[in-house]
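Posting for a labmate who doesn't have an account.
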Amino acid sequence: MSTPLSIKIDRSSPIPLYHQVVQGIEGAIRDGSLASGTRLENEIELAQRLRLSRPTIRKAMDDLVQSGLLVRKRGVGTQVVSSQIRRHLELSSLNDDLERAGKKPTTTLLSFEHIPAPEHVQELLSLPKDVSVYHFTRLRSAGGSPLALMENWVRDDIVELDEKSLRAHGLYELLREAGVNFRLAQQRIGATTADGTQAEVLDTDPGSALVTMQRTAVDDAGRNVETGSHVYRADAYSFEMTLVQR
C-alpha cells in the first residue's frame, strides 16, 4: 500500500515547484515520517493531488533518486531507501551517534591483528619504539543496512583489545572503560567514489559517492590514542557543523 505525501506547495515562492516537492519529501524522510522501505503514491496521483504537472513531479523524483533517498523498483513503484544519519562534528563515535539517533547499530568485524605499527601509523600516533598497535576493520550497520567501513589503529600500551569485545562494543566505549579521557582530535572530511570492494561491503554500486573521514584522537595526557580511516555511504550519512564569526 502506498503512502500519500503531505507536502505544502507555495506558488508565490521563488523556490521552483519541483524543488519544493524535493524539500517536502526530504524533510519527511529525515524526520522519520517516511521510513525506509515506504512505498510512495505514483507520480500521476501525486501530481493530481498537489495540482502540479507530471513533468514537475518527475523532475523532483529524479532528483531524489539521484541523491539516493528514493529508488524505483519495477512492479513495486517508488520506495524510500533510507533516512540519512546526520553527525555533528564533535568528539564522539559512530556507535554513540547511532544510538542517540534511535538507530540500532551492529558491527561486523572483518579483520583483526596485533602488529608492529607501520611507519605512517607510528608517525600519526607518535609511538614509542616498543609500542605496537591493534589494527582492525569493521563494518557498521544501522537498522540492518550497511553504513560505514572503518579501519582503525589503536596503541596497545593504553588498552587491551580482542575480537570479541570489538564485535560487542563501540571502540570509544572500550577506550573510555580503559580510563581514556578524550581531549581533542584532528579530523579531515572528504569525498570519494566506491571501488569494487567498498561497493560490495557497503551494498552499493561501484562509483557511488562516499564520505571519507580520517581522525586521530588525543587524550587528556597528550597521547595520540587511535587513528582511523572511515568511509560512509553518502546517501545515508552526512556531517553537520556550526560556523561562528570571529
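Reply:
Got it, the C-alpha cells are right above this. The chain is about 30% helix and 35% strand.
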